[in-house]
Every structure is written in C-alpha cells, then in structure tokens.
C-alpha cells in the first residue's frame, strides 16, 4: 500500500477534523426517534445531502416509506465491494434532567468528548465511514474499492421494513447488500486503546407473561383461600430455571453451536476485566462462581433468560393488604447462534402447559436470530493490518457483540457474507443511556481506520469468500 498517500489522507483528517466534528454535531441535533417523524426526516435529508457531496448515489426504499431505508453505492477502482450497515434512528432520550447539561440533542463537547443522543448509536458509526470517504476522495480522487451503504430507520424498533423486504423480494434485497464483506454498525475501543473487531450479533426473544386469577383484587385476609396472581406468576417463572442457573425448558439449548478451538483461543485472549465489572455494577460474585475462560464462555457462548420486570398489586401508593388478581412479567432471552426465537417461545409455552401453568399467558413480543462469522475468516487479517496503521495496540477479537440486532436479516439472504463490526464507541459511551458520548480521539482514529481498511483491501491479494 502507498504509505505516503495514506499519510496524506491521515493528514487531511487531522486538518479537517473540526469540520468533520461539526457535521457530526449537526446530524446529532435531529431527534430521530420513532415517535418523532420530523426528526427522522431531517436526519435522512442530511445524510442524503452528505452522500451526494461524496459522490454516493443515494436512494430511499421505498420513496414513500415510513421511515424508508437509505441505500447508496459508489464505484471504486477495483472489482471488490465492501458493504456498510448503519441506522439513522435513535432511542428516546429519557428524562433530560438526567443529562449533565439537560440537553440531549445539544451535541455539546466537554472533556474531549461529544455528548448527544445517538452519537454512539449510531450516527458516529455511520459518519466516521463517510468522513473516511471524504478524505479518500480529496487525496486519491477515487475510491480503492466499491462501497455500498444500507442505513435503516427502524433498528431500534425491530427493523420491520428491512425484514419485509428480505422476505418478499429476497433476490432484490440480496443484490442490494451483496459484496465481499459487510462492516456492521459499530464497535469500540477499550480504555487501553485497543480496537475491537466483533464477529457476531446476538439474538433475542422478548416475552410478556401475564396471569389473572380473579376479576378484582380482594382483601389480604382471603390470602389462604383465594388464588393470588402474584404467587401464581412467581411459581411459573421459578419453574423455568434451576438453582444451577440452567434453563429447564426442554430444547432450550439444542441449537447452541459448539465452541470451537478457534473460539476458545479468542475467548482466552479476550481481555475481560472480571473485577472491574464487579466494582462498576456492585456485586460480589458471578453466578455459579464462574471465572476465567469458563466465565467468558458463559458470557459469549451461552444463551440467557432474565426476568426484566415484575408487576402485581400496587406498591406505588399507600400500601394495601390485598390479594392481587393480575400479575405480569417481562422476560428476555438473549440468544446465540443458531437458536431460533420462534422455537424458544413455543418450547416455553409447551413447558408451562406441561408443568400445569396453562393459565399463564405468554405473549411473544419480538425476536431476532443471532449470527456468527467464523473468527478465522480471511477478512480478519485485512482488518487487523489496517488497524495497525492507526492504533499502537493490538486488535481484540470479540466473539460477538452482546446486544441483539438485525444482522440475521442479511445472513438469511447472503449466508456466506462475512459480517464484522468495528467503530468508535468506548466502554463508557453509555449507549441508550443518559450522557451518551464518543471520545473525539476515538472518532478521528475510526475515520483513519476505515481509510486504511478500504485502501488495504483494494490492494490485497486475500480472497474473503
């Protein structure tokens, strides 16, 4: 690779970084939540304007969609193609008083960080890629490889339209996202300055349990004679898991892929701070006493089942001695490849029926499948070499991102497409929380990383698929 030209592009980023940050601030000032269509529209228009300035041919799919998907492409000097996935919607900002400056969309710079709802998830992840293309255009005049972008507006609300596209028009959708490899929405750089490459996306199965044992609440003196919904729900939930933390539902683990030797090496090398997590969250020991590689395998390779919330009776006003007639709970299972959320739901429903809890209703709220890219994929070498031009610390291989996402939609139509994640977030970016942020240094390095990646892959002899 022409290292002199690469340094010129890096210098361009340094010289124009203030303008790049200003653009990031501007796009973060649009409140693009699902219940704010005007903010989503403003975000789309800003992105399409930037794409046009960079020579990216942009389209909205469909033109009258609500909200539509943005798709763009730009030709490069080689026949190789990298595909980028991002999203332009954000989660609600929550109570503004919880933000240090009380203004979630102000995009304030403080302590060498930019604070704004959506800056980490996912506008920073998208714009670092656009600013890389800006530098490539300015110095090289052209792109070393073909690039495609698919940026949706429903990632935070189940990606319904993208899923519909993939199922109703699979050939067309396959053409939209076809390429040699896909770079997913984001990643992080840890507190030691090590960039992460993520090789998967978790799935999930979100369930709402409910039970009704009478028509109205009654006085607590009837507690020995009238069935209470709270106890009924507690017993049903308790039947799902054993004291060893294993889920007791038959078939729950059947589809879990075995851990390979390459996986175990990646887990062994992964720098998981066991004691740091204990301190930051405030607990004394991990479940079942797991530690070391066994703990990391449980964290990354095993599915979960968690009770996220319980509701019964009324504790929000003056306490009353009652037998509640209704109770509900939210249960989330985080899945690993190749589990199917539909199968998980039906397995739980059958199990509860078999255990005598047919009166407990289970609503299947949403679900996504997990995907994995083999950690030995040849594209890993390209990403590691590119990172070495920017970071002075080695790349960290992360088996999968911990959160769920719609990568399974892409994998369903392009089963051989390597999907990997990288980006500018940090461990305290507080994604989905208050004071969401990116470090300016991490953002600048992410721009340079994409530049090096595109240049290196354009000249590499490595065949990915």
From TrEMBL:
Limits of the Peptidase M20 dimerisation domain: 211-356
Example GO biological process: lysine biosynthetic process via diaminopimelate
Alphabetized SUPFAM superfamilies for the sequence: Zn-dependent exopeptidases
Keywords, alphabetical: Hydrolase, Metal-binding, Protease
Any Pfam family hit: Peptidase_M20
Name recorded for this polypeptide: M20/M25/M40 family metallo-hydrolase
InterPro entries in the record: Cyt/Met_Dipeptidase, Peptidase_M20, Peptidase_M20_dimer
Organism: Candidatus Enterocloster excrementigallinarum
Source superkingdom: Bacteria
Gene Ontology CC entries for this record: cytosol
Alphabetized GO MF terms: metal ion binding; peptidase activity; succinyl-diaminopimelate desuccinylase activity
Classification via Gene3D superfamilies: 3.30.70.360, Zn peptidases
């Amino acid at each position: 690779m022409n290292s002199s030209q690469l340094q010129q592009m890096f210098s361009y980023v340094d010289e124009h970084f203030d303008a790049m940050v200003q653009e990031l601030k501007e796009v973060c000032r649009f409140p693009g939540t699902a219940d704010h269509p005007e903010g989503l529209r403003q975000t789309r228009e800003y992105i399409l304007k930037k794409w046009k300035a960079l020579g990216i041919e942009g389209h909205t799919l469909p033109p009258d969609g609500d909200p539509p998907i943005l798709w763009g492409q730009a030709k490069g000097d080689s026949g190789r193609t990298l595909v980028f996935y991002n999203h332009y919607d954000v989660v609600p900002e929550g109570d503004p008083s919880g933000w240090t400056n009380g203004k979630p969309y102000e995009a304030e710079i403080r302590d060498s960080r930019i604070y704004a709802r959506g800056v980490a998830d996912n506008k920073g992840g998208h714009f670092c890629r656009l600013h890389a293309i800006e530098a490539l255009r300015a110095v090289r005049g052209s792109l070393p490889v073909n690039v495609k972008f698919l940026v949706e507006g429903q990632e935070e609300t189940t990606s319904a339209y993208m899923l519909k596209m993939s199922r109703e028009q699979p050939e067309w959708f396959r053409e939209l996202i076809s390429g040699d490899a896909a770079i997913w929405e984001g990643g992080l750089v840890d507190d030691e300055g090590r960039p992460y490459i993520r090789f998967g996306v978790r799935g999930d199965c979100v369930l709402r349990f409910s039970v009704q044992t009478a028509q109205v609440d009654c006085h607590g003196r009837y507690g020995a004679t009238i069935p209470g919904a709270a106890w009924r729900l507690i017993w049903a939930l308790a039947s799902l898991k054993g004291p060893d933390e294993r889920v007791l539902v038959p078939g729950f683990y059947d589809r879990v892929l075995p851990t390979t030797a390459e996986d175990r090496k990646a887990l062994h090398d992964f720098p998981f701070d066991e004691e740091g997590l204990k301190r930051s969250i405030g607990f004394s020991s991990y479940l079942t006493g797991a530690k070391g590689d066994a703990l990391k395998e449980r964290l990354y390779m095993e599915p979960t089942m968690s009770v996220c919330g319980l509701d019964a009776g009324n504790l929000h006003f003056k306490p009353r001695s009652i037998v509640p007639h209704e109770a509900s709970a939210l249960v989330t299972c985080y899945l690993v490849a190749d589990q199917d959320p539909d199968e998980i739901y039906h397995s739980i429903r059958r199990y509860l029926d078999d255990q005598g809890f047919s009166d407990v209703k289970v609503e299947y709220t949403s679900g996504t499948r997990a995907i994995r890219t083999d950690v030995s994929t040849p594209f890993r070498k390209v990403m590691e070499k590119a990172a070495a031009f920017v970071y002075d610390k080695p790349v960290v291989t992360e088996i999968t991102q911990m959160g769920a996402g719609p990568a399974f939609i892409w994998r369903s139509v392009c089963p051989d497409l390597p999907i990997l994640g990288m980006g500018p977030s940090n461990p305290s970016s507080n994604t989905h929380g208050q004071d969401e942020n990116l470090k300016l240094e991490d953002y600048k390095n992410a721009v340079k990383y994409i530049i090096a990646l595109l240049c290196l892959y354009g000249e590499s002899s490595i065949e990915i698929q």
